Amino acid sequence: MNYLAHSFLTFTDGQIVGQFIADFIRNKERFSFPKNIRDGITMHRAVDTFTDSHPAIHEAKKVFAPLVRLYAGAFVDVSMDYFVANDLSLNSLAEWKAHSLRVYRVLNEHHEWLPENFIKMLAKMEQDDWLYNYREDWGIKFSIQNVLNKAKYLDKDIPVFEAFLHHKDFLQECYNDFFPDLLAHAKGVNTLLQLED
User: Fold this and answer.
1) Are 17 and 114 in contact (CB under 8 A)?
2) How far apart are CA 7 and CA 1, in angstroms?
3) Are 143 and 85 in contact (CB under 8 A)?
4) pLDDT exceeds 90 at position 171
5) Contacts of 159 (CB under 8 A, 6+ apart)
6) Concatenated DSSP letters for 134-173?
7) By C-alpha distance, which of 56, 53, 29, 50 is closest to 170?
8) What does DSSP assign to residue 112?
9) How far from the centroid of its chain's Cα atoms is residue 171's Cα?
10) Which of the 8 DSSP states describes residue 128?
11) DSSP string covering 16-75, please?
């Protein structure tokens, strides 16, 4: 999953921090963080593992695989944030806006724990309000282009966004089949994390 979904699948401020920095640290570094942030790192990895093994995600990857092969998963992750952001059964638009502002506030309040490379990205994320703007086609187009720009072995002009638009209804079905299962899984993981306290 991408940033919005990871931020939504949190149950404490510390988990927000851990969810966001998980991809920016080495695995052995996680032990240098407080328990509540480590819980977020654990949650991030549990979310990713569950996502990668879900049948609906395997189906969604077929939309992008002909264009980007092994990178299909990265584009599915970005696409799912669009559907999370537009899922009014989870939050109203006002609540999604409040959620994005809370996430930026929490991350900035925990600045001392943020890796340097993440801090640079956070400034851009907050300035352009990525979390809230994933609900817009242009927001997802921007994110897809970011993935293309960072990918070493992909041409920057591959029509991935066009594939997203063309298959949006199918991807929505994949999301509908997948996200309730992921949410239930995250709640279960959180229960186990709280038992460790």
Assistant:
1) yes
2) 10
3) no
4) yes
5) 67
6) TTSHHHHHHHHHHHHHH-TTS-TT--HHHHHHHTHHHHHH
7) 56
8) G
9) 16
10) T
11) HHHHHHGGGS-GGGGGGS-HHHHHHHHHHHHHHHHHHH-HHHHHHHHHHHHHHGGGHHHH
| Burial classification of residue 195, based on how many CB atoms lie within 10 Å of its CB (0-12 exposed, 13-18 middle, 19 or more buried) | exposed
Q: What is the pLDDT of residue 152?
A: 86
> Is there a contact between 16 and 100 (Cβ–Cβ < 8 Å)?
no
pLDDT in tens, 63-121: 999 999 999 999 999 999 999 999 999 999 999 999 999 999 999 999 999 999 999 99
Q: Which pLDDT score, from 0 to 100, does residue 28 have?
A: 86
Residue 41 CA to residue 25 CA, distance in Å, equals: 10
Cα 111 → chain centroid: 20
pLDDT (0 to 100) of residue 197: 64
What torsion, rounded to 10 degrees, do the Cα atoms 20, 22, 26, 28 define?
130
